[in-house]
Amino acid sequence: MAKISKRFSTLLATVEDRVYEPVEALNLVKQNATAKFDETIEAHARLGIDPKYTDQQLRTTVTLPAGTGQTVRVAVIARGEKVAEAKSAGADLAGDEELVENIAKGEMGFDLLIATPDMMPKVAKLGRVLGPRGLMPNPKAGTVTTDLTAAIKEFKAGKLEFRADRSGIVHVRFGKASFSTEALLGNLKTLQETIDRNKPSGAKGRYWKSLYVTSTMGPAVAVDVAMLQDLKQGA
Fold this sequence. Notes:
By secondary structure, the chain is an alpha/beta fold. The protein folds into two domains: 19-68 and 159-230, Ribulose 1,5 Bisphosphate Carboxylase/Oxygenase; 74-157, Rossmann fold. It is 31% helix and 20% strand. Helix 3 links the parallel strand 3 and strand 4. The longest helix is centred in the last third of the chain and has 17 residues, at 181-197. The chain is globular. The N and C termini lie far apart (42 Å). Keywords: Plastid, Ribonucleoprotein, Ribosomal protein, RNA-binding, rRNA-binding. This is Ribosomal protein. InterPro entries: Ribosom_uL1_bac-type, Ribosomal_uL1, Ribosomal_uL1-like, Ribosomal_uL1/biogenesis, Ribosomal_uL1_3-a/b-sand, Ribosomal_uL1_CS. It comes from Paulinella micropora.
């Protein structure tokens, strides 16, 4: 078992063993983000789903109103004029077969991959490289599209793709410790609404098992999901 640092033990002592009202939870996470850099704030939602069944899978996107506070490096696989369109829209990397070959060799200098539908047969061959990293383009996630300009701008502005892992847990970064509590709450509320709106048809029993928020170097804080669901945006 890894040894807990004195700093982390001190922070852990500030978190009670209970669920917190959303604003209270976010204030506590911000207070405990004491590292020398601007820590990322993350949400971890355990859902009552078993993703090994196709009707219990969750994969979608969310557009966070306050953005993520992070620079997203976008790569685009396209051909012809679409490569120029991607570059002019702000793609960090754009290309055709050559880019596919570079990715196959392990060159992964990007956080998000978008592809045009005509290039998907080529991209499909990258499944072993992209799949484990969650980077395979997918129409449901808005990462297989002909409208490259709109897609690139949305993802650069704070649109995020997320999915439930094999345990039915969703992990999403939704801001930085430097964000105001109001901005973080707006992002968290939008995330909660998106998860509820995309509830898989095969989900049985209690959908939300737990929701925790945490910072990169801080302890996790449990959030009262019912209170979050009852909040109105802008409240």
